[in-house]
Specification:
The chain has 14 helices and eight strands. By secondary structure, it is an alpha/beta fold. It has two domains: 163 residues, Rossmann fold (3-Layer(aba) Sandwich), CATH 3.40.50.1970; 196 residues, Dehydroquinate synthase-like, alpha domain (Up-down Bundle). β4, α4 and β5 form a beta-alpha-beta unit. The longest helix is centred in the middle third of the chain and has 23 residues. The radius of gyration is 20 Å and the shape is globular.
Amino acid sequence: MKIPDSYAFFSQPKIISGSCALENIPLELDALNARKPLIIMASGGAKTGPGKKIVTAFKGSGVVIGAICDNISPDASLDMVYGIAQLFRDRGCDSIIAAGSGSVVDAAKVANIVISTNTSDIAQYAGENAVLENNLKPLVAVPTGLSTGYEATDRARIGTYNFRSDYISPDVIVIDSRMIKFGDADAPALSAMPALTHAIEAFLSEKRNPMSDVYASTAMQLLHENLAAAIKRLRNKKACLAVANAAAMAGISFSNVQPGIIDTLAQAVADVTDFPIGVCMGILLPYGMLYLRDQKVGIRSDLLMALSGLDIFAETPDGQRTEKSIATIQQLVAAARGVVPGSFKELNIPNYKLKEIVRVASERSRAYSVHDYTLLLDKAWVGIQEQ
């Protein structure tokens, strides 16, 4: 790869992964000068296995748990965020541990803005480049299962507000095999599709650099080698841990580039229809690859090496590597076919909603034209994958 004349790569989170990763949290908090965390998790989490495992990990550490908030719903609201911030202050906490994914981490990130800036109007920090001038309180993220793909990123969302800033990324991501418990058979596939999309779009981005490539390619390799096993057997700790690692690495790489057309359009579909982001990305990804192939920039031939490894790359003729990459991605998505349909039409999304989806996508990012969004969405709605 040619090294750009100049580039910047930022990775805020320190990643700790393994069978006993939880026991490292007290040491990491101490390094961040924090000793009284607020733990937040999904509704009822404190009474279930994940909550108990975290509490046990603190025994004998000298770290005092300031409070536990286990009422975070999938549609966390601003009122909930302000409630977290008030609990943090009332209990004299100095850090946050977000044990969960999706709305749990989003709520933790945004509550951290409220706490650290002492604001009563979070809207002033919303937008593509939140005006944050200082580090926030220490934030540790502990994935527990179903991922939206944004937990490790510099982004968060609460209600209609979107936030993006280097400062809101977690300081530490602790991936422990005891905590990665996919609750149902759909979860591995729904977690893998955003990770795969983010890794591919980061790898193909015009803003990519050698460092983002390393994170993105590693995420793709982990998914290629472990996704089928994670879907087939939920208790496969090795495979499920690999999917969680891929989600974190893809998110970090994705934070260093501009969102691609697949991510932007999938977000718009999810906003308009309320279908899970993993389903939306899984449907769009095969069609998005065909769209990218036909653009002037095209698809890098070494995407195949990132996906499948050096041996497959070497044995595939140069002129066939792009098509082989697309076929490999289609196979990965096909492994999730029981969860991810082949088209939006199969989800009974009415045709008249397509214009609204395109409008939302266009408002989110002007990097692509209405024509591009419409072309890709139309194919994904009908379910035609022309080669």
